Amino acid sequence: MQSQTGMSSEAYLEAFMSGFEFVLLAIRGRLAEPGVPKAERERLEAFLADYWRLSQAYHNRHPAPGTGLGIGGPFRAELPAMATN
Q1: Which pTM value belongs to this model?
Q2: What averages of pLDDT result for each successive group of 10 residues across the chain (85 residues)?
Q3: Cα separation of 11 and 75, whole Å?
Q4: 55, 24 contact by CB (below 8 A)
């Protein structure tokens, strides 16, 4: 099935889960800031643990289709040769 954007349902869900994981990483970054009160830290850590399990359950049921952002893999930039001054 395709959405109005032309993406298949599976591709849309994969993109959603990638965004979801990005938000979880942003929250993890918040925990790295100095001065986070202990109660807030504990609440955020419990939230992250619960929602990270949801993300992992999704990926364990549906292997990545081989396309996507590739955030976890090596990064390589290839630039064309250019004249220098």
Answers
A1: 0.54
A2: 67 86 88 88 88 86 54 57 62
A3: 22
A4: yes
